[in-house]
Design brief:
This protein is mostly helical. The protein has 47 helices and 10 strands. The strands form 3 sheets. Strands 2-3-4-1-5 form a 5-stranded parallel β-sheet, with helices on both faces. A 3-stranded antiparallel β-sheet has the order 8-10-9. It has a two-stranded antiparallel ribbon with strand order 6-7. Strand 6 and strand 7 form a beta hairpin. Helix 6 (about 150-165) runs parallel beside helix 7 (about 180-190) and helix 12 (about 290-300) packs across helix 15 (about 350-360). The longest helix has 19 residues, at about 605-620. Residues about 270-275 have low confidence and may be disordered.
Length: about 950
């Protein structure tokens, strides 16, 4: 091998610059594309040397043909060095992602069992965050080689990394051959989108071939024998690996020999490149001796990667002989030990294995493959992990297609159970090609059924539906089995928001089951249809009633059989529907769901119940403690999606608390993550939070911007729509647009008239009746109807319902009753400062008209709050109403924000507050006048105004009041 790299100076300079940028926190992705032997590995090696010298962390992994259906193999190898060192970095940003990362490195599980709830996108996010943490100080270089052989799951993560690395201290360097593959497609498309760069490695020009040959021989280029350069130019075709192999073969064959300080050609080596390389490889193998040569040929039939125990079984070598073979193979640069799996070895390159296997006759290869398959199955009867796929490939090489297909089916089922649905689809498709429909018809039907589930899990709804259509007419499956598969497809469609397709699948399932179906077969169909009726776009006034009937029927069967997952699904939808009668009723179903999940060890369903219970408690009381506990439980389980849902619920509550900056920061984080993960429903709700936050601040432009994004994502056709209308009504009120607010509430009523709602804080049970009563379009009957609804008891709604009662009582002349109701409304609104002060503004106007309560105090308090919050329309309306009440309205001047709220509410101006503070220092009028650059007479007027507003008898009392307020 050449001690120096030749002909790749430009590429290396580009990578050196990228490493510098990465160390500074600006990462990226590069793809090295070139035929075998063109220098991808050497360039990668030079890059890792530079990275190590700069103190960067370097991670390396390689894909293999045998591992193309082994999920995440290159990433596992790359991250293995971290596992051997300190494990997952102890960083708060990785806390929730440890379970996901444990899918790559099981040692990181820490002895805990986690539910299998992580999607590939969650795992990709976990890898991205891990790399960001590892490279935080000096940067990290992750090298993934031979990605043309990469598994689908690895490619999904690589694509995710490419899209998100520019702001991370991470450089991804991936290499591949220019063969049609998902890796090459990703490289080219990423380059077009300018999110990555492709470095195409071309063959070396003749001058560089000469320089490389000279470097390999340790001489200067002019000293290279005259025959060597033309020979290499003809035979190597500019391929650095072939140049090195040809030179090595020539030296070992004695055609190129040392002569003093130089080299001389002594024989004819004008041969074609492939045969030269084959000859070089096989000659090195033969030099090890016949027994080792035959053993290496057998290993090559097993594959580029092979387990030593299988090789020993089929070659018959002793333990000592096996150790000797391994040492000899490594010394001859034929073999490399696996860096991740003990007891496995790898041929140095694909050409080595191919060259050795090519020396065997087809019958010999088939015989060795059959013997190797027998050995694999005898040594590992359970066929764990990639051993199952190895056995399948060997059976295929031996010519036993049905046996190979059934083994690929086993591997596909296992891969699906591990959550790698895309790889499972590939394996199961391969199994279907190999398993004939004749005597293996039943097995083929099972494979087809599993493939359908894999397609559904992979999110390929269209592909699953196409397969499902094939299954509908299949005679290989029972009607009940096909109905089960259609039900599964329907659930996938519901989760993905494909309401019409979900309905079609439910209909197909019911047709197949017929009238005589067992309750156990019907229960899963009932559950899916209940969800569809509750969340989908199904028309009909009685849909909520029908959904509840179906869910109740399903839960009765599911809890008796038992079908625990179906039972949890049924209780989930029943809890949503029970909110119509009261959140206590909803909690009953959630506690049943919690109990079922506990008894059957369904961790994720337990967490879902816990989060929904906490959400109900939050809506009842406005207190978030239980939700915080549920969110922590999600983090402990590594349930990213559930944790995100808990975050979203809390962020919405922060909007109601008027903690807008915190709410928007959390919403942005949720939106970024869910957009990256293609979780449209969660992304829509993150935008609902942003809409609500802008609306509750009266920021119409910001609300419209978020609303446009919400609409672009189909939000107004989702079940999030009514709550958006409700928050838009709030924004209209903050613009003093009462008709606009009433129009939005009419939209809420219209939407909920034909849809079972899952949101009860949209305004229908609080703000809407208050506006109707203020406009004198509704009275006691309407109020009684709303007040009797369970949703009116939620704390956010209760403040509006009580305020509406106060207005009605005041209008009836019951001033005392109205005052009591208003006090109760203010008590209910204590956690919600914006709503509290908006109610003061709205009710004060009615109180002025009907002569009850303390509207002046209410308006002063509301005016101060909305002025400070920069909601000019409401603050101005409060001042107008104060003038209408005959109250002198203070002039708004700079510094008012420094006046304590209780003093501002009593009309103390900024200048009066300055005077009051100086009175607290026992200063006289002349001294105060000098300090404030006003006349003593003006000071005297301010003191008189302060005594009137604060109820003090003299200036001494004012001074004492200031002293009493000091800490």
């Amino acid at each position: 091998m050449s001690p120096v790299m030749v002909g790749r100076a430009e590429e290396l300079a580009t990578l050196r610059e990228a490493l510098t940028s990465t160390a500074a926190g600006r990462g990226g992705a590069f793809f090295l594309v070139g035929d075998a032997g063109l220098g991808k590995s050497r360039l990668t090696r030079e890059c890792t040397t530079l990275a190590n010298a700069a103190g960067m962390t370097v991670l390396r992994g390689r894909a293999t043909p045998a591992g193309a259906t082994v999920p995440y193999r290159p990433l596992t190898e790359a991250l293995f060095s971290l596992a051997r060192a300190d494990g997952v970095p102890d960083d708060p940003d990785l806390l929730a992602y440890r379970p996901a990362l444990a899918r790559l490195i099981p040692e990181w599980r820490g002895g805990r069992d986690y539910p299998n709830d992580d999607s590939p996108i969650v795992l990709a996010e976990a890898v991205l965050r891990l790399l960001g943490v590892v490279g935080r100080d000096r940067g990290v270089l992750i090298c993934l080689s031979d990605l043309h052989d990469g598994d689908a799951e690895t490619m999904g993560i690589v694509e995710y990394l490419v899209d998100n690395l520019p702001d991370q201290p991470v450089l991804l360097l991936a290499s591949m051959r220019p063969l049609p593959s998902p890796a090459l497609t990703l490289a080219r498309s990423s380059a077009r989108q300018r999110v990555a760069r492709v470095l195409d490695l071309d063959p070396l020009p003749d001058a560089d071939v000469t320089a490389l040959a000279a470097a390999c021989l340790g001489i200067a280029a002019p000293d290279l024998p005259a025959e060597v350069a033309p020979w290499l130019a003809r035979s190597a075709d500019g391929n650095p690996f072939v140049v090195e192999e040809l030179l090595r073969g020539a030296v070992e064959a004695g055609a190129l020999v040392r002569t003093g300080g130089g080299w001389a050609m002594t024989g004819d080596v004008h041969v074609d490149v492939p045969s030269t390389v084959v000859a070089s490889v096989t000659d090195r193998a033969r030099r090890l001796g016949p027994q080792w040569h035959r053993a290496l040929e057998a290993a090559a039939v097993v594959g580029r990667r092979f387990p030593l125990d299988v090789l020993q079984q089929i070659s018959g070598v002793t333990d000592a002989g096996l150790r000797a073979l391994v040492r000899a193979g490594v010394d001859a640069q034929l073999l490399l030990p696996s860096r991740t799996v003990p007891g496995w070895y790898t041929f140095r390159n694909a050409w080595t294995a191919e060259a050795l296997a090519s020396e065997l006759l087809p019958a010999e290869r088939a015989g060795i493959a059959a013997a190797a398959a027998d050995a694999v199955e005898a040594l590992s009867p359970d066929l764990p992990g990639e051993v199952c796929q190895l056995a399948a490939s060997l059976r295929l090489a031996a010519g036993d297609r049905p046996a190979a297909g059934l083994l690929y089916a086993v591997a596909g089922r296992r891969t699906l159970a591990e959550g790698a649905a895309t790889s499972a689809v590939r394996l199961l498709d391969q199994a279907l090609e190999l398993v004939p429909a004749g005597q293996h018809a039943a097995q083929r039907a099972d494979v087809l059924a599993t493939l359908l589930n894999a397609l559904a899990e992979a999110g390929d709804v269209e592909g699953a539906l196409r397969r499902g259509a094939d299954l509908a007419g299949s005679v290989l499956l029972s009607a009940e089995k096909r109905a089960e598969l259609h039900t599964r497809l329907a659930w996938v469609c519901v989760v993905g928001g494909h309401w019409e397709k979900a309905g079609e699948q439910v209909d197909l399932a019911r047709q197949l089951l017929g009238d005589s179906a067992s309750p156990a077969a019907l229960a899963p169909v009932d559950v899916v249809e209940a969800h569809l009726l509750t969340l989908g776009d199904v028309k009909g006034d009685d849909r909520a009633v029908r959904a509840e009937e179906l869910a109740l029927r399903a839960v009765g069967t599911a809890e008796a059989v038992p079908l625990p997952t179906t039972a949890c699904q049924a209780r989930q939808v029943l809890a949503l529907l029970a909110r119509r009668r009261g959140f206590d009723d909803a909690d009953v179903h959630l506690r049943h769901m919690l109990d079922t999940a506990d008894r059957h060890a369904l961790s994720i369903w337990r967490l879902r119940a816990q989060i929904r219970l906490a959400t109900n408690e939050l809506m009842r009381t406005g207190q978030p403690e239980q939700l915080h506990q549920a969110r922590q439980a999600a983090l402990d389980l590594g349930a990213i999606t559930a944790g995100s849902q808990a975050d979203a619920t809390f962020a919405m509550q922060q909007v109601l608390y008027a903690e807008f900056a915190e709410a928007e920061k959390l919403a942005d984080r949720i939106l970024e993550a869910t957009t990256r993960m293609h979780q449209e429903g969660e992304s829509q709700f993150a935008l609902v939070i942003k809409i609500a936050s802008a609306a509750h601040q009266g920021r119409r432009d910001a609300m419209r911007q978020a609303l446009a994004d919400f609409r672009a994502r189909g939000g107004e056709q989702s079940f999030h729509a009514p709550i958006v209308f409700g928050h838009r009504a709030i924004c209209a009120l903050l613009s003093e647009d009462r008709p606009g607010a009433e129009a939005e509430m009419a939209r809420v009523r219209e939407w909920e008239r034909s849809h079972p709602t899952i949101y009860y804080q949209s305004g229908r049970y609080g703000l809407d009746p208050l506006l109707e009563i203020l406009a004198r379009r509704a009275g006691h009957a309407r109020h009684a109807e709303i007040a009797g609804a369970a949703a009116a008891g939620l704390r956010w709604n209760r403040q509006f319902v009580l305020a509406a009662e106060a207005v009605l009582l005041g209008r009836d002349g019951d001033a005392d009753g109205a005052a009591i109701a208003m006090a109760q409304s203010q008590q209910a609104s204590a956690p919600f400062p914006m709503a509290r002060h908006l109610l003061l503004r709205l009710v004060a106007e009615a109180a002025l008209d009907d002569g009850w309560g303390d509207p002046v105090t209410w308006l002063r308090e509301a005016e101060t709050w909305f002025h400070t919050a920069d909601v000019a329309a409401v603050a101005g309306a409060c001042r107008s109403l104060l003038r209408r009440a005959g109250v002198r309205v203070m002039q708004r001047r700079s510094g008012l924000e420094a006046v304590p709220a209780d003093l501002a509410q009593r009309g103390v101006t900024a200048r009066e507050y300055e005077v009051l503070m100086l009175l607290g220092e026992r200063k006289g009028n002349p001294e105060i006048a000098k300090l404030l650059f006003i006349s003593p007479r003006t000071v005297e007027k301010h003191v008189a105004a302060l005594m009137d507003k604060l109820g003090s008898t003299d200036r001494t009392a004012l001074s004492d009041l200031v002293v009493a307020r000091l800490p």
